[in-house]
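WARN no homologs supplied; continuing
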Amino acid sequence: MADSLPPDTKPKTGKKRGGKSGKVADFRYKRPSRSNETSPASRKGKGRRAKKGTSHSRIKPFEKPRFHASSGHKPAHLGPRPKQAYAALDLGTNNCRLLIARPSGENFTVIDAFSRVVKLGENLAKTGRLSDEAMDRTIDALAVCSEKLRRRNVYLARSVATEACRRAENGAAFIERVRQETGIVLDIITAQEEARLAVLGCHILLEQGEGPAIIFDIGGGSTELVLLEAGGPIPRIKDWLSVPWGVVSLTDTVPRKGSSDADRAARYAEMRSLVLDSFAAFRTRIGSAAEDPSIRLLGTSGTVTTLASLHLELPQYDRKAVDGLIVPSQSMRDISTRLSSLSRDDRSALPCIGNDRSDLVVAGCAILESILDIWPADRLGVADRGIREGILRSLMANELITSDKKNFKQ
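OK structure emitted
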């Protein structure tokens, strides 16, 4: 279904074309008994509640693996298992994404993938809770993921939830509902772990250079900024920041108050002001690194990939054309300014945006421009990879470390 990721080579140029770390939680996905399994499509009704007088069986939750002490014999395999499938599931504030892959040398080959806009954090900024409608949409998407995990006979996986579940007062209850109804055990990770995984997943796409680097992830409910030390093939995180402004939370916090050009300009200015204020302390803290003329920027998010698609004038989204692209920062600014001035309908009509992104892309543009205000690099790297790829690399690396330890003890 999905092809392999682009090779980890030097990022593409922007020439236009035609038209601290947390533990890795390891889960082995076990196939439940068919007699206890209920098809996701057969569960009806709000919140998947059974009608009175009836009962329904739930999918048996996947179990954590039981590790036994070494018996002293040499392990049959060291490191990641090339024929086994590994999986990473990232439940964000706006999207649910799954990646299933097999190890391939130092990298991996994707064998299945899934992505759906679920809007889990819709109205969370106003209510402080995940709505029933948002949770139902998300459960539907996770049921699809659950079936893919079973069908691909996944050996090892990690499933994480980010800002929406961190912030919502009913976030923990939702995680338990997901476990009961789909069998997927979600780990609500910290903002720091989220930033680490994003860097691990996309740092290979940074432009070559000796100066410091900023990797940023504009999410649905938050934005993470990570400052990497200059030089060295392996990135070292020098400082980081997470702010509660993502495309969903910022859109909900600064609603539309009119449809005139002046109204749209005022709303965009308010968004940018909120974001800039939240970045101020970090900008002061990192000092001279922000003013280094050799600083490199790399963005991973739907915002930067969408704007890169518009830069390339693509008729439809093409991951291979976008992932690893290097674009002029001024082009991204020009596109952001243009999008912020358009009506919702006009934005919807543009290629690579559509109805799903037409409302949220303005907030993404405000966050991106605020980042470029603080770090005015001439060029911007674009990554269509991040947390999921970081999880996969962590899982495979953890297998290697575990195997090395076993071998060392023999």
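Residues 1-10, 15-78, 401-410 have pLDDT under 50 and may be disordered.
OK
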